[in-house]
Backbone:
């Protein structure tokens, strides 16, 4: 954190002081690239085909400067990193109380795909695990499924500041193999945490996870969160500032699943991980960060 502070101050000092940021990122990239271990997720078969050597880091500041090193322009699917953005969207469109009826804010201490609801309210624990994210996916506005899909893609495109699309083969791969998520969705139909056809809700959830982004995109999207919901590149207010606290709190307590406590203790930045191997982190009012490296450990 102290280092990032120094970088931030350096970048505010004007163009001549910019090199230290890039130098620092290059040095960091080289140092971290030497670490091996982990393995790309392959429970969605299509994800297992990725080059495990890919490694990128990108930082976007709230005043629209971007620093990137390594494979920051290689596309991959956003996966669970989509969840805080969808949650933020639901809060904005339904308000805190209505969203709280469908999804809580309590860490699970369990894996992302755990089949568990809280015993008192029958709710998914939080919007960062699959159960909660599936409940949140149902809240995408639109009269028809096509309209909801279009609204979802528009949301992510506005956040990234460019038109984003879905990776059809990852979507098909997850649709064909996502039985555990199907179990979770049916369990929530049973407890009225979702009310539409589970397969329709999952169709949107799987597509949301299959949105194709780059490390650079995710840094900008994270910087949009750091910037009270306003995209620092395009200046477009994607979200209002009202629910920033709700979203960053949940990222902080639940964004890294069963590693969330240790992450908060060691790293301290509200963050979200995804099975493609990316993590975003937000320093409110300052920067958004994305790191991308496909091999992951069990705390994905
Ligand atoms: N689409 C993935 C799933 O639901 C997302 C999981 C993740 O990134 N942790 O299984």
Residues:
């Amino acid at each position: 954190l102290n280092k990032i502070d120094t970088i931030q101050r350096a970048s505010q000092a004007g163009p001549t002081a910019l090199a230290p940021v890039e130098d620092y990122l290059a040095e960091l990239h080289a140092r971290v690239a030497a670490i091996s271990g982990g393995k790309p997720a392959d429970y969605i078969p299509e994800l297992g085909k990725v080059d495990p050597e890919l490694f990128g880091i990108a930082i976007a500041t709230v005043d629209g400067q971007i620093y990137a090193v390594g494979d920051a322009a290689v596309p991959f699917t956003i996966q669970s990193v989509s969840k805080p953005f969808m949650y933020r969207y639901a809060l904005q469109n339904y308000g805190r109380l209505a969203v709280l009826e469908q999804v809580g804010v309590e860490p699970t201490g369990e894996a992302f795909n755990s089949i568990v609801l809280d015993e008192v309210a029958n709710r998914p624990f939080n919007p960062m695990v699959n159960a909660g994210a599936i409940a949140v996916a149902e809240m995408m506005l639109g009269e028809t499924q096509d309209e909801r899909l279009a609204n979802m893609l528009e949301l992510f495109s506005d956040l990234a500041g460019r038109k984003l699309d879905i990776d059809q083969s990852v979507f098909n791969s997850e649709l064909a193999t996502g039985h555990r998520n199907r179990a979770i969705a049916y369990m929530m139909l049973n407890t009225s945490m979702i009310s539409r056809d589970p397969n329709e809700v999952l169709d949107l959830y799987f597509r949301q996870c299959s949105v194709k982004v780059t490390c650079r995109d995710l840094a900008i999207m994270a910087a949009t969160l750091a910037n009270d919901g306003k995209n620092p590149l395009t200046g477009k207010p994607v979200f209002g500032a009202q629910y920033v606290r709700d979203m960053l709190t949940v990222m902080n307590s639940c964004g890294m699943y069963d590693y969330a406590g240790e992450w908060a203790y060691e790293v301290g930045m509200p963050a979200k991980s995804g099975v493609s191997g990316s993590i975003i982190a937000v320093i409110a009012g300052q920067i958004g960060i994305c790191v991308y490296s496909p091999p992951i450990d069990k705390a994905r």
Notes: The two ends are 22 Å apart (CA to CA). DSSP finds twelve helices and seven strands in the chain. Residues 79-80, 112-113, 130, 174, 181, 209, 274-275, 300 surround glutamine (CB under 6 Å).
